[in-house]
Give the backbone structure.
Amino acid sequence: MKKLILAILVTALPGFAVAAGGGIPLDSAPIDTGDRESQARGAQTYMQYCLGCHSLKYMRYNRMAEDLGLSDEQLKALMITSEKPGDTILNAMPTAQAEQWFGTKIPDLSLVARSRGSDWLYTYLRTFYADPKRPLGVNNLLFKDVGMPHVLWELQGLKNPVVTKNEHGQEVIERLDPGLPGQLSDAQYDQTVADLVNFLDYVGEPIKQKRERLGFWVLAFLVIFFGLSYALKKEYWRDVH
Ligand code: HEC
């Protein structure tokens, strides 16, 4: 019986993953996880537009500055909610209060790049659209009835949904039209979001660069070690054969 339940779960799991994606295909995030300048730009956008509500409680300011190569002045400019470089990155609004206002949990984003993935984040932050039926006036293609305002609307503008009927007669959003223009062009906005996602990817796994470098040397070691032990084996068995 246990085996049966397990088998059902395992077959059903990929289905859940697709369902969680909100049904639209994800755009691949154009990020280079070794690009520290992109991540530093993302950090700036984060502090300006996201820190009001979302903490990054597993990241410390000084660690971030060291990893991303920020100068003392650059770091100071980013430290909006704290004075001590050794502090973790906490949100500006008291979380309990904010959650009461928004009527929903406001998640810490330290690990969101790992739980959701960069492509999800990149798509999510670019698919808000005007929806007068929602309390905040916006909705999201990927996160239906989202409780978060479109905080980057000044930059992106506000898109309008183009609704059509699918083969079952249900209304579906075919695409998003430009609607209200923002300060940035589409290409500039995509770049800003990519930098932000790159920053969140770094926060999710600060040692990624090191791990990938280490991985290379571990593999190189294994190859060399294999060569040596093979030579040794040949040497030992020469007399036997
Ligand atoms: C005014 C408060 C506020 C600001 C500012 C804000 N958010 Fe949110 N965010 C929320 C709330 C509330 C939710 C929960 C939405 C829900 O559950 O419906 C949320 C959810 C999210 C989620 C989904 C997390 C998950 O896994 O479910 C992501 C990702 C996110 N926010 C990213 C950002 C980014 C990036 C910024 C900055 C550009 C930002 N948020 C700015 C309030 C905010």
About this structure: Residues 57 and 145 are 26 Å apart (CA to CA). The pocket of heme C is lined by residues 49-50, 52-54, 102, 104, 106-107, 109, 112, 115-116, 121, 124-125, 146-149, 151-152, 196 (CB under 6 Å). The chain has a mean pLDDT of 89. The first strand starts at residue 56 and ends at 60.
